Model the fold of this input.
Amino acid sequence: MTIEAHDPHRGTQDWLWYLGVPAAAVALYLVYGQLIPFSEWVTSLFPVARDSHTGEAIAFFVYDVPKVLLLLTGIVFVTGVLRSWFSPEKTRAILAGKREIWGYPLASLLGVLTPFCSCSSVPLFIGFVSAGIPLGVTFSFLIAGPMVGPVGLGLLYGLVGWEIATIYLVFGFTIATVAGFVLGRMGLERYLQDWVRELNAGPVGDLPEEQFTLVDRLKLGLEQVREIVGKVWIWVLIGIGIGAAIHGYVPEAMMLQIMGGEAWWSVPAAVAVGVPMYTNAAGVIPIVEALLGKGAALGTTLAFMMSVIALSLPEMIILKQVLKFRLIAIFIAVVASGILATGFLFNAIL
Done:
């Protein structure tokens, strides 16, 4: 973007930015806090029962679309501003060599502490990628966030006790860290979408970095929002729309047939069934509880849970705007391998 170095109206414009950005942040925060009652109100306008599958789908869509778009806007803006201080080259230099090794567990830890589902984690992932953070490190966050977030862990603790919940945490954290490391070592940056690679390779503004004012940096953040959100928003609608259509729908009888047996193929079958579905950790835990109560194997059930919340179809649709198909396929293969290992090990030791 072009930044004017000498503008006679610059002082007045600067104050508008200083007042406007905090006001916009407060407004977005207030809107975010009203999404649940808003989604309930919109759902009540339809001639369907709230607890029906259709009612659940409408409420889910009306809540999740603005939530993800608000998160995407805020995160891209912040990372765009920070990018004016930390160019991709500087970021890579900071995380280079031995220090990058610590980036994987730190990104996984951030994911564990972040109460986001898979689609809500995508905005942070996009922000990290656009800021030039190494791809493998960003994948560690993307995997850990939905798989072992605080909401899911808390509910799992109440369902199966602290011992199994702790083992699940260790396995999930390890999958995220190791998968990110493996993906990072594969040199997959060439499979980012072209506009992402151009964004990372391009200059940050038209002025030398040391001449940037705070307003210049805020303008760069807004430009990032226009560029990135403008490319992704329609796919957020499509992805979450598909997720809403299948939200809460689990063919329980079929799942019990798959998960209740001792056959070796039960774990991969559970993962294959779980990937097309979509819900968050809070939504999948009651399903896990029902399946375990009816005799489903623990490892197979947990593999199903991991695949639902870490490899959801809507997440992949949104990621397609940032990653090419080959990279998405590699990502799915690496994460699915970790989930399969977890399922087999849980079934073997418990």
About this structure: Residues 20-41+51-349 form one domain. Residues 214-246 form the longest helix (33 residues).
